[in-house]
Amino acid sequence: MKYMQYKGVVEREYKKSLRKIMHEICVVEGLNSSLGAKKLGIAKEIFVYWRSFYRLDRNQQLFDQTIDDIDQMKFLYLNEATAIDSKRPLKHDDEQSLEGLEELVGRMVEYYKCVHAESNGLAKDTGNLPLYEFVQELLEDYKSGRLLMEVESQKKKAQ
C-alpha cells in the first residue's frame, strides 16, 4: 500500500481526518513513533512521515512556537517606544543616589524598549531589557519595604 491508501484506511477506521488523529496521538497522548505506529497498525516509517508532514514532532512544535513568539514580540514595545523622549535631560545628573540610580535604570529600560521596537525584537542588545526591568522592580521593592520583609522572612525560614 501507498501512503494515501494507508491514510484512507486509518481515516475510515477512526472516522476523523488524519491531521486530527495524528494530533491526538502525538500532542494529546504524547506517544512516540513506535507506540503511535502500533496504535494505528501501520509501519513506523509511515507514522514518522505523517508526524513530520503535520509538524507534530516535539522539536518542530517548539520551533514553530518560538517563531510565533518572536513574531508577537515585534509589537510588544512599539507603542511605548514612540512615546519615549530619549533626549530629555536627567533630573539627577550630578548625584550618586538611589533616585539617580532609579532614573538611570528607567532610562536604560526605555532605551532597550526603543532598540527592541526598531529591530522588531531581533537585536542582540534587547536581551538586556529583562535585566533592567528586574532591577527596576527590585528598586521598587526596596523603596516599598517589600524587599526588607522578604529578607526577614528568609531569615526566619533559615532558623
Structure description:
This protein is mostly helical. It has two domains: 3-69, no CATH class; 74-158, no CATH class. Helix content is 70%, strand content 0%. Helix 3 (33-40) crosses helix 4 and helix 7 packs antiparallel against helix 8.
Summarize the model shown.
The protein is built from 9 helices and no strands. By secondary structure, it is mostly helical.
Topology:
Layout: H1 3-14, H2 18-28, H3 33-40, H4 44-53, H5 58-73, H6 78-82, H7 98-118, H8 129-144, H9 146-158
Helix pairs in contact: 3-4, 7-8
Task: Record keyword descriptors for this entry.
2 domains, about 160 residues, elongated, 9 helices
Shape: elongated
> What is the number of helices?
9
Q: Tell me the quaternary state.
A: single chain
Structural class of the helix and strand makeup? mainly alpha
Radius of gyration computed on alpha carbons: 26 Å
| Percent of sequence in beta strands | under 5%
H/E element order: HHHHHHHHH
For the termini, the CA-CA separation is 70 Å
The biggest beta sheet reads: none
Overall mean pLDDT: 88
Uncertain regions spanning at least 5 consecutive residues: none
